[in-house]
Amino acid sequence: ILKGEHVINLNFPDDFSIGIGTSSYQIEGAWNTSDKGESVWDRYVHQNPHKIHNQSTGDFACDSYHKYKEDVKQIKDMGLNHYRFSLSWPRILPTGYANVRSKDGLKYYHDLLTELEANKITPFVTIYHWDHPEALQKIGGWTNEIMVDLFGDYARIVFREFGDRVKFFTTINEPFAVCRDGYTTGVQAPGYTLGRVAEYLCGHNILKAHARAYHIYNDEFRASQGGKIGISLPCYHHFLNDENDVMLREIAFQFECGRFAHPIFSAEGDYPTIVKERISERSKLQGYTRSKLPTFTKDWIEYIKGSADYYGLNHYTSAIVEAAPKDENGIEVNDEGVIYKSDPKWVNTTSDWLKIVPEGLRYVLKTIKQRYGNPEIYILENGVSDNGTLSDLQRKEYLHSYMREMLIAMKLDGCNVKAYTIWSLLDNFEWDRGYSEHFGVIKVDFNSTDRSRTPKESAQWIKTIANNRKLT
Ligand code: GBH
User: Fold this and answer.
1) ipTM of the predicted structure?
2) pTM attached to this predicted model
3) Ligand 1: distance of its center to the CA of 72 in Å?
4) DSSP per residue over 384-423, as a string?
């Protein structure tokens, strides 16, 4: 550790916001209440029950559609500053298009905002957290460029409806996961295993859609509403077995984080050169006519560049990167040419992909600062799962150690972190893992029809931190 570390105080600056998050499909339930449209997740879990742990669905989830007042009370009880939640696109626009709006859908979110205002909790609103309308998937979902226009239309309605009450917007949650798991691995809705052409096309359209929403906000709403808008991107820290392998780290960073961050946050814009070169070379080796990675025109590069007021970071864990093996033709098994491993010394959690590596967060924050001109950073997700206990000691330790690294990055490295968001408020529908991994600081009894909520021990700990404004 570093000289001077012992002398820094671990208090949160006065203007720093501490909050907690959820997403619509994971908690709301009420999947077909009133005129809500079907989402890709509704369709996916109903048509592919075997792809979800225990054949679970989010049909009822935490029933937050009916119990949002209780959710807000829990946040209030912990003394937190903000609540990050997402809007369900088909709840607001049942067909996906802007010509049909659901009065009940809009009312639900207005009611939630009213409750938050009454409790002085700042809303951080994510416009899209994976549950787009099934009707739009029918025409290709994120592989169809029309999504850029349609997402823009949806975002405009969101700003017009809610922008006088919401000052923090996030356009899209984790494009990497949407495209990798929706189109290549197929473990998330819509569940396709189409490969990298589709995955990169998805990412390409998501970057454009994000920028479209940003510019709509900028041109039509910023002057009167005065909020901030950004995107949430996941980023691990990449450790090396051999410090001479710095190229592996560079490639891993640029494929996982830079592919989405560089077009938006770098001075030059566009995809990172190394990503363009590697994908183009490999596409050639594999006999494709052109690169699997689409190309941005100069206009699009300029339009996407700078399209965020803050860098939204989702961070859970880190990995060791190694060179990818080669197939029988001597070609690396994936475009990036790296694979992820974990250190057996890292502490395990209930989620097999999530090892506890707090120092990774500091590295990631420093990397973002160095590469992208010290942007404001909002940590929008950080947390850990448990196996259903109320005595969640590991969560307290996890949150403490990660918050500590964040504060060190702020105070010693000068990283401009302005908000920290715990994932998650509630045990919830954990996508393909169903209800088997519990990320909540509030336990939800999924066997009770009223989905009763009980704070875990970590909730009490969070309350102490939020009240003292200091990590002890
Ligand atoms: C977040 O993504 C999501 O934004 C949030 O909705 C979710 O509740 C939270 O994670 C906790 O899971 O072992 O190959 O199947 C984090 C990124 C992407 C991490 C998918 C887990 C599965 C890896 N996630 N990934 S694998």
Assistant:
1) 0.93
2) 0.97
3) 24
4) --BSS-S--HHHHHHHHHHHHHHHHHHHTS---EEEEEEE
